[in-house]
């Protein structure tokens, strides 16, 4: 068989490994005129033994006639060719670099874990203990603000729960229409304090309890000059009695709540503060009220005779009227008045005497 196709690698013969540098194949291995003759050798690329030294790679060259198994990366057949000597120095360096990199990564991970752990521990310690916290004068820490807000809400809820069962709705029948107002159960005999103008001129009275039951009521007596009146119902099991507080201890800015039946919406609660003390207001042509508590808690028709309470659940006043804007002839927003509990106690003593 003749080697006529230099690109047909299946027809090529392996080079003579015993050839000297720069020599072509011997005549017995090369037929005349074939591609492996001296005239076809590429300059600088003899197939001598010195070109198979370790680390020497023959560059691939299209059409050069280099056999596939001499190209870089090709699998060398087991023909007794000299095996390349592995550079032990380069092999030994790789594990060193790998270990150094692993150690560096491990050290960095440990450091990050330590920093993160210290941060968590510090936050946990700060959350559990407020001691040692420095507060700049005039500022309020967030934890103190949240705690104060929650305490205030809890106090409001407790005060409302304490007084609400003692607040009733009063319905009076007039010659023309119906009178609506509120009242407070103040003793175990079923005595109810309310405003005089709520019951003035009524023919019959009904009291709607906090549980929705409606019971008849009788007028015991009135103090028109102070706009106060006392009704009485039959005592019942589980009846709640409100506690009258000391209105003389009220301060401007103190939080108060109004409980009543504005516009017939029973059990309504509004909140505000004590806006001023010892106010005077002209209720009618014949009645001028003095010593009143001014409050920003909304007071609407139907709130009259209800309860103005502090956060301890004590009745400190009875909402009576709200200011009227003379220009629009409508109730002024956030300006209401209540009869102080000190006057209520005096009226009760006189009426029930």
Please explain how this structure is put together.
The chain has 353 residues and is an alpha+beta fold. It is 22% helix and 26% strand. It has 4 helices and 12 strands. The strands form 2 sheets. A 6-stranded antiparallel barrel has the order 1-2-3-6-5-4. A 6-stranded antiparallel beta barrel has the order 7-8-9-12-11-10. The longest helix is centred in the first third of the chain and has 41 residues, at 88-128. The termini are far apart.
How many DSSP helices?
4
Which CATH class of the domain at 247-352?
Answer: Mainly Beta
Q: Strand order across the biggest sheet?
A: 1-2-3-6-5-4
Mean pLDDT: 77
> What would you say the CATH architecture of the domain at 247-352 is?
Beta Barrel
Low-confidence stretches: 1-12, 16-59, 61-76, 131-136
Question: Helical content, roughly?
Answer: 10-25%
- CATH homologous superfamily name of the domain at 247-352? Trypsin-like serine proteases
Principal-axis shape: elongated
Computed Rg: 53 Å
For this structure, the quaternary state is: single chain
The N- to C-terminal Cα distance equals 145 Å
Order of helices and strands: HHEEEHEEEEEEEEEH
The computed structural class is alpha+beta
The count of strands amounts to 12
Reported for the largest beta sheet, the result is: 6 strands, antiparallel, barrel
SSE blueprint:
Layout: H1 88-128, H2 142-163, E1 167-173, E2 178-185, E3 191-194, H3 196-199, E4 204-208, E5 214-223, E6 228-232, E7 255-260, E8 268-282, E9 288-295, E10 307-309, E11 315-325, E12 330-340, H4 341-352
């Amino acid at each position: 068989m003749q080697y006529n196709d230099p690109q047909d690698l299946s027809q090529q013969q392996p080079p003579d490994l015993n050839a000297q540098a720069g020599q072509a194949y011997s005549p017995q291995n090369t037929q005349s005129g074939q591609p492996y003759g001296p005239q076809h050798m590429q300059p600088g690329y003899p197939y001598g033994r010195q070109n198979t030294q370790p680390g020497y790679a023959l560059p691939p060259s299209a059409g050069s006639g280099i056999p596939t198994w001499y190209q870089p990366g090709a699998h060398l057949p087991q023909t007794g060719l000299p095996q390349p000597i592995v550079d032990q120095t380069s092999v030994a360096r790789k594990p060193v670099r790998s270990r150094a990199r692993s150690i560096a990564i491990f050290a960095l991970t440990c450091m990050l874990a330590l920093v993160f752990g210290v941060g968590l521990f510090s936050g946990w310690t700060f959350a559990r203990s407020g001691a040692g916290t420095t507060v700049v004068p005039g500022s309020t820490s967030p934890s103190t603000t949240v705690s104060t807000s929650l305490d205030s809400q809890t106090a409001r809820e407790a005060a409302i729960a304490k007084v609400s069962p003692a607040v009733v709705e009063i319905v009076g029948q007039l010659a023309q229409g119906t009178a609506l107002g509120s009242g407070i159960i103040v003793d175990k005999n079923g005595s109810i304090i309310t405003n005089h103008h709520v019951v003035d001129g009524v023919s019959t009275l009904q009291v709607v309890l906090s549980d929705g039951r409606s019971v008849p009521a009788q007028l015991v007596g009135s103090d028109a000059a102070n706009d106060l009146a006392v009704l009485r119902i039959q005592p019942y099991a589980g009846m709640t009695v409100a506690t009258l507080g000391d209105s003389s201890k009220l301060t401007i800015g103190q939080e108060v709540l109004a409980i009543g039946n504005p516009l017939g919406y029973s059990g309504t609660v509004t909140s505000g503060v004590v806006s001023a003390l010892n106010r005077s207001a002209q209720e009618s042509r014949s009645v001028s009220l003095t010593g009143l508590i001014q409050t920003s808690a909304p007071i609407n028709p139907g709130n009259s005779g209800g309860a103005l309470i502090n956060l301890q659940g004590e009745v400190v006043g009875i909402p009576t009227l709200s200011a009227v804007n003379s220009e629009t002839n409508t109730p002024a927003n956030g300006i209401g008045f209540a009869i102080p509990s000190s006057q209520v106690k005096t009226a009760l003593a006189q009426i029930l005497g």
